[in-house]
What we know:
- There is one protein chain.
- The chain has helices at 26-32, 36-45, 80-83, 93-101, 115-129, 161-164, 171-178, 180-201, 210-214, 218-221, 232-248, and strands at 17-18, 55-56, 73-77, 104-107, 133-138, 144-147, 155-158, 204-209.
- α4 (93-101) runs parallel beside α11 (232-248) and α5 packs parallel to α8.
- The chain has one domain: Rossmann fold.
- The chain is 42% helix and 13% strand.
- β6 (144-147) and β7 (155-158) form a beta hairpin.
- The protein is of the alpha/beta class.
- The chain has a four-stranded parallel beta sheet, sandwiched between helices. Strands 1-2 form a two-stranded antiparallel sheet. A two-stranded antiparallel ribbon has the order 6-7.
Amino acid sequence: xxxxNLWHFGLSNAxxxxxxxxxxxxxxFQQNVQNKEYREYFRNKGWLExxxxxxxxNSAGFRSEEFDPQAAxxxxxxxxxxxxxxxxxxxxxxxxxxxxxxxxxxxLAWPGTSADTCFMLxxxxxxxxxxxxxxxxxxxxxxFDLISEKVHxxxxxxxxxxxxxxxxxxxxxxxxxxxxxxxxxxxxxxxLAVEGLCARLGIRCLTYNAxxxxxxxxxxxxxxxxxxxxxxxxxxxxxxxxINDFATxx
Length: 250
């Protein structure tokens, strides 16, 4: 069996129960509750109560119950849209899909990751977990991973300057981001790679672009506690689509 402790961004939090996970931070929350509209929204959702939202990280470093390769499960791949930043776990689309299909919920997402990360994790974990279903909500397309000896654990996810409020300095990175075709192809390659891996293992697979479902008006998707990410309504809508596709697609 492969090393179960494959490095990824969440591994440093393995085995912990966290009250906050960036960008859902206590500082941002305290700022938001000063706004009457936000405070009433949080009150209506029950998010003003202590421990209303927690991030329980399993021993493998994911917001998921402990993995059991013998259990029938659904594996979810993605970024903050999938881990459910700013939401109780029970409101996330991965949880809702697992409950509806009566499967264990193995969520392999982490905030700020890319479609490259999704494939890396799928390539490691799918042969071990052998889930009944894999759902990939591909992260924003302009993110990509590079392996380098200059960064922690030789692995880093690059985000466009528009996401991090900075400026791209590296010539390769700047050139890559200047042409959308690079992002389109990289995103498509990773989705097809995950689909191909699932086909080889005999696992049902559904892939989507997370941006298509969660970067909508807040009237459609509501807000999470960080007031940046989509809220419960967006996750419910996406979960319903997945459940319908699972039932109707061959």
